[in-house]
Amino acid sequence: MNTFEKIYDIVKQIPRGKVCTYGTVAAMAGNPGLSRVVGYALHSNPDSSAIPCHRVVNRFGEVSKAFAFGGANAQTLLLESEGVIFDEDGRVDLNKYLWRG
User: Fold this and answer.
1) Which of 8, 21, 60, 85 has its CA 20 to 30 A from that of 36?
2) Residues tagged active-site
């Protein structure tokens, strides 16, 4: 299994209504510190219906400004449709919504 496949396998496991950070996904895939690789993998997501890349946020709980499938607003709307609430600064409360695997 290559690195992108490992990343996709982990992201598929993130439950509805939860998020994970790029760094946590990288560590779980055996590549701690390579959160940018997670971003590259998710940007080239071959199947967004099966690989919920919208559930991956940065270490501050912020959505991607360049979300591959419609921009930051699309990612926010997808997460809100799953019950994820954003604070007034547009961040997800990682203490409440973070999935740790």
Assistant:
1) 85
2) 53
